[in-house]
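sorry for the late reply, my laptop died twice this morning and i had to redo everyting from scratch. anyway the thing you sent over, i finally got around to it. pasting the sequence first so we're on the same page, its 191 residues, then the predicted structure underneath. double check i copied it right bc i was rushing
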Amino acid sequence: MISAILLAAGKSMRMDGENKLTKEVQGIPLIKHSVKNILSSSIDELIVVLGYQKEIIEKLIDKHKKIKFVFNEDFESGMASSIKAGLNNLSDNSEAFFICLGDMPMVNKKIYNHLISYRKKKDIIVPTYNNIQVNPVLFSKSMRPSIMTINGDIGAKKILELNIGKMLKVKIDDVNITRDFNTKNDFNSSS
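ok and here's the structure:
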């Protein structure tokens, strides 16, 4: 079983008071793009970690049997708490999990499925674009205890640094894997 943890709890600090996940890209709220792409891949479960404006975000996401909503009460402490909230809600039979960012709506099912195809080769599958590590990263369940040690407003970068021997870098030739939406300018340049 393959799971995906979608981080959708942040406060969009660089958006001048707007929640980036509710803003539209090609006429559809950003978060809906991210959810649709993950669900169209071969994942078996999607854990959406909510925090800031949780009711608004949850209403934007169509109900689906693969989706489990989780509320991170500690979302203001940073990304690490949201990752842990997702990990605490993984299904027992999950063999591997993605950590996905809600503000990366252009990562498509082809990219997810390509990364999944490498999952038995190493414990950490990291996509790269032009030799730069990008997201989403796929982790074997054996990495869960290490990831549970992270704190603050950081993702699992430190875990990657400490486990280079367990990591396989997979080249992705799609520039969309680098596109995130953090500022109003990011949205303006997408239309």
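The chain has seven helices and ten strands.
thats about all i looked at so far, will dig more tmrw
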